[in-house]
Design brief:
Layout lengths: L6 E2 L18 E6 L9 E5 L7 E3 L20 E8 L5 E2 L1 H7 L6 E5 L18 E2 L1 H10 L3 E3 L12 H10 L3 E4 L9 E9 L7 E10 L1
Parallel strand pairs: 5-7, 6-8, 7-9, 9-10
Antiparallel strand pairs: 1-12, 2-3, 4-10, 4-12, 5-11, 11-12
Length: 212
């Protein structure tokens, strides 16, 4: 057994959590409750497929593309590299070229989002994102999976659609909404399992990291 514990880097689902502006709100209510005399506790949950920590399937932006059913398990289970990005605006080619990205890698980007964006009461429109130019560098390197520490690989004001199209068009699997505040850059084991939504365009996921 490894001496290093698994660390949960998922965002907990809760009432009032902020998501992408315009999306349906997350609602968790008690359908049955022992406190009110019911025989058991059962919650009713309403949320969208891109709530909190989640994955994007190519279908999210590309009509007729692969769905969550097509996710290959080796994209989300296995060695991963957590890299820290210093740029406070976007992940750009200049920093990526220093990382020497490799074919088949699972790359997780830690930015200021983990220490700043998640602490804000409202959605942070100025989160660090992957620029469309950086997305092309990732595709050209043959990376199979990318993870980011806020709710989108693309920016709110810029490159939101373009970055998704470049990555998903090359079938790079995307994990969004990670909390990496307690994670240092380095080599890890990744275990990220999405909810099994049939023909899903995305799915909330539980993601764990363990230091190698």
């Amino acid at each position: 057994m490894s001496k290093n514990p698994w660390i949960d880097v998922s965002i907990p689902l809760h009432n009032g959590m902020h998501g992408w502006p315009g999306g349906p709100p997350t609602s968790i209510t008690m359908h049955l409750g022992t406190a009110k005399g019911d025989v058991c506790n059962v919650s009713a949950i309403n949320f969208n497929s891109h709530t909190g920590t989640h994955m994007d399937a190519p279908l999210h932006f590309l009509h007729g593309a692969k769905t969550m059913d097509d996710l290959p398990w080796d994209a989300v289970i296995g060695p991963a590299r957590v890299v820290e990005i210093k740029d406070r605006v976007a992940i750009k080619p200049a920093e990526l070229k220093k990382l020497k990205l490799r074919k088949g890698e699972r790359i997780i980007f830690k930015t200021r989002n983990s220490s700043v964006s998640w602490k804000k009461a409202e959605f942070d429109k100025d989160f660090v994102y992957i620029s469309k130019e950086a997305a092309q560098v990732i595709v050209d390197a043959g990376v199979q999976t990318v993870g980011v520490d806020y709710l989108s690989v693309g920016g709110f004001y810029k490159d939101g659609i373009e970055t998704h199209h470049i990555l998903l068009g090359a079938e790079v699997w995307i994990i969004e909404g990670l909390d990496l505040a307690k994670i240092r850059p380095g080599n890890y084991d990744l275990n990220c399992l999405p909810i099994k939504f049939q023909n899903g365009d995305g799915a909330p996921s539980r993601c764990l990291l363990r230091k190698r």
